Structures are given as structure tokens and as C-alpha cells.
Amino acid sequence: MMKLSNRKRSFLSYFMLALSLVLVGSATVLSVNTMGENTISAHNGYGTRVCAQPANITAPASLSDYVDVQISVQAPANFTHILITRYSGNHTFIIVNANLSPREYFTAFLEIPSENKNNQISVQVQNQSVISINLQLKPSYLGIIAEVFLIAGIGTFAAFFLIVEIRSRKYLYLVPVYIGLSIIYGQRFDDYFMISLGMRIFDGSNPYVQKGFILPGLQWEYPPLYAIWSYFVTLFTHYVLGFNIPSNTGLNYVEVAYNDIYSAWRALSGVNLIILYGLAKLPFVISFFWIDYMLLKETGRQQWKLWLINPFAVAVGIMWGQLDVLGLAFLLQAIIYHKEGKDFGAVLFASIGAAIKIFPVFVIPLLIARSKRKLLSSSAIIPVILLCLLVYAASGNLLLDLNTIVTGRTVPTFLGVFISEGLTWQIVISDLFIRNFPSIFLYVFVPSYLVYTIYALKRHVGVERYFIITMLLFFVTYNFMNPQYLIWLIPIFILIGEFRYAAILSLLGSIYLYLNYSYTYFLNPDIAWNYNAGLLGQIEAIRHAITSNFVVLGVFGVLSTSIFLYLLVKMLRNEHAANSAAASC
Description:
Layout: H1 6-29, E1 40-43, E2 49-53, E3 56-57, E4 66-88, E5 91-113, E6 118-125, E7 131-137, H2 142-163, H3 174-184, H4 188-202, H5 225-240, H6 273-280, H7 282-299, H8 304-308, H9 311-320, H10 323-339, H11 343-354, H12 364-370, H13 374-378, H14 381-395, H15 398-410, E8 413-414, E9 417-418, E10 421-422, H16 427-431, H17 440-459, H18 463-477, E11 480-481, H19 490-495, H20 499-516, H21 535-547, H22 550-584
Parallel strand pairs: 3-7, 10-11
Antiparallel strand pairs: 1-2, 2-4, 4-5, 4-6, 6-7, 8-9
Helix pairs in contact: 1-2, 2-21, 3-6, 3-9, 4-5, 7-10, 10-11, 11-12, 17-18, 18-22, 20-22
């Protein structure tokens, strides 16, 4: 097999990078679907309004026997009965005929046969006059072309990633690129919380509890320090940029009241999400490069593939812009301070990290126990606790706020029903419709964590390995094993030289993102508001329905847990072997 020279290898790799950007960029252009685009609406004399999207179904019939169309019905007063029919091919089909609890809103996804080019949807609420809208099938291969471009772009980038060799330490040119990515992309549900948090405080409301017209599930269930930045963003955009800030009640999208919590982001219609995405995620972009700087300092080499251009790390830390990367930066600094004997700084930074995202809290007991001046190190927690209590108390009700974060992070139920998501075997329990199931996290992880902490103190386990083993145990037992949690361990594995394990977690997270999400969902809503209605969005919706079905995700959840268990056993064995070797010397 011919071996490429360094010059040819460099040229080929960067050609692939350029090609992947062109392909993904072209697919993104074909994803654009602004608010109201490809949407049809009608109303009657009673003020009831019906909306449907996509109005023009462009996905070719050969891809799927049915296509999903979202129908939303909003009435000026409560109704308890709705009838939805479809007229096509001289036949009328009843789709929905339901008695409901009193409501002003109803939404449903209708399966429309893909061979019928014209479909008339009729909606009747109570005994009001019928509202009719026409949906048309206009097959276009542009959506398929966009999907091919997207998959080819991802594949081409993967090829670039595998063959590129970057020896340069110059990475600052990535800063504006990643700021741009943080604006174009996002996790619209999570970004809604980070943006609306400061807006609720600005409106004088308590964002931590289900009162003051905050719907269930929309309260802030994370530590409070990010609220300071979110509030600053709100003040800046209002007083400097002149943005109108939605009221607290205006941030409650109506569908959320009827158990469609993941539509909450639609309440941000009318605000400039291009600016708000960039400002809300700026701390995460800074943290991403801060982590890279610390890894460079500790390992003596630029971690290009495992961090700087790691697709999973960039997706979570930059494109999604998760709190995790900010908390992780403070945790990593705490670990480095601990290795340097700076005990007070180690505890302080771990405490700040935990006040952003809770996971750094698990290393604090070990840091204090290992410190030379335990009382002084313990005092580093005090200013962080006081600041958190101040933020909670300022919002209105300290005890309720604290109860929100404790119950929200430990109880495996939502509205009294067991639920699980992500890379966990427990997703199978949810798929089997088991509504009551004990909290494995509370009954297994918590006592195991206490026992292992005692063991680690006696055996002098390093803080990096202690954190890794603790988090792997967490991954195995937690019922909401979100993919972004994997990023917690990637830099720590790099620190201890376990590059293979960092790569395994990165690959695992990347595969899950592809299986469980539509690409268009990640686009800023100002670019693709109805993300399933655009040319690419309709094709991605079909692909997503296949790759995210309960069998695929159930199998992947079990596989993920198996990998976590494997890594946990390997780390425990390595730790035991290291302790045995030390004892024999």
C-alpha cells in the first residue's frame, strides 16, 4: 500500500475538510425554514385557529408509506371534544375523535399516506363550524440530495479526522469559527432554559419553583451560578441592544401545559435568537479553550483530535453549549491545583464548578480530606455557598429553591411516572411501560459512592481516577444518562494518558447524537423554526423515526451501559494493581 508523503497527506486532509464544509453547508442551506414558512392556517367565526406544517410535503413517497404532519388547534375558550377527518380519493377517514379534559389547545401528529397528492384536513371543535385546510404532496428530490450531502459531509469529515496530523500549537483561528458554530447551532430545548432564566428573573419571577405562572417542568433545576450570567445577558440585550424581553407568562408556551414540554422553546418567538445564542453560550466557548490550555500545559501536547476538533466535544461544548463544559473547566482546574498542592484553590474551583453543574461536587470530600490544612481548605466552600444562597434567596424562596434542585436531580419520575432517557439500560424499563420503578441512583450509587470514597482515602487513590470511577458508577445507575455527561470524563482520561477510553466515549456519544436527533433540530430556530418542515427537515424526520425507535435506542442503551461497566471494571482493576505494586515495594 502506497504511503503518502506528509505534504500530500496534509493537502488531502485539508481538501477533505473543505469538501465536508461545503457539503454540510449546502445541506444546511436546504434546511432553512423560517417561522410561518411551509405552514398553512385557517380559522372560523368563533376564533378557533388551525395550523398545519408542513403544508407542502416534499419527501418522495418511495421513502415512507406515511408522512407526519403536525396539526395545532387553538380556541379562545375551553373545549372538551375534537373531531379531525381526512378527505382524500373520495373517501373520508376519521383520524381523531376524542373527548378531552377542558383545554384551549390541542396538537397531534397525523400520518398522511404518501401516495395521496391532495388531502383535505377538517377540524371541528365542540359544535363549531368545520375548519378545513388542504395539504399537498409535492415530491422533490432536493431533500434527498440534501440528506446525501449531509451524510457525505459527515463521512468526509470523519475521513479528514482520521488522516489529518496537526502539529501546530496555533489554534486561536478556531475561536471565531467556534463562536460562529455556537450561534448557528444549539440544543433548542436546553438553550431555551439558559435564555429564559435571566428573562424570568428580569420580570421579577422565581425561576426555581412551579409557581408564579411557571408551568411544571420549566423551573430551573440546576445550581444557580449560571443565573447571574443569564441575567446579565438579559440586561445587556434590553438596555444596550434595545430588545423587548418577554414576560414570565409569555415564556410559557401553551403546548407545555398539555405535556409537550419539549416544545417550550417556541415561546422565544419574536426575540433575536442569533444574538441570544451567541451571548448565552459565550462562557462555554471560553471554557472549551480554557480546558484545551490546561490539557496542553499538563500533557505537553496540543490535544487536537481528542479535544479541539473532537466532533463530540465540539458538539456538546460549542454547538449545544452545555453547562457541563463550564463546570468541567472549573473541575479540571481544581484537579490541577490539587496536584500542585494548592489545596484551597482546588476546593474553591471545584465548589464553583459544582455551583454551575453539580457533578464536580463528588470530588470535594476527597480534596478536603487530602489537604494539609483541612480547616482552611474547607473554608473555600463558604463564599460559594453564600453566593448560591444569596442567588436563591434573592429569587424569593430559599427552601423551595433548594428542594427543587434536590428532587429534580434525584427522583426518577416526572409527574409521578418513572421515566428514563439517554445511554442507559433503564430506557428498556420505560419502553416496557413500567410506571413505577425504584431509583437505582439513590439505592445503589449513593451508598456505593460513600463506600468507595472511604476506600479511596485509605488506598490513596488519585483524584483523577477517583472521579472517573465515581462517574462511571453514576453512568451505570442514573436513569437520565444524557449524552453530554460523557464529556465529563474525556479530559480526565486524557490527563491520565488513557487516550483510548477518551476516544471510546467520544465515539459512543457521537453515535447516540446521530441516532436520537435530527440534524435540523440543532439549527438555530431563527434559521429552521419548523425544523421538520424544510426540504432536509422532512427527510431527516423519516431518518430520525427509523434510528430513534425504541428497539434501536433500547439496544444502544444496554450496549452503552455494558461499555460503562467494562470501563469501570478496567479502572478498578488498574487501581487495584497499582495499589498492590505500591504495597510490594
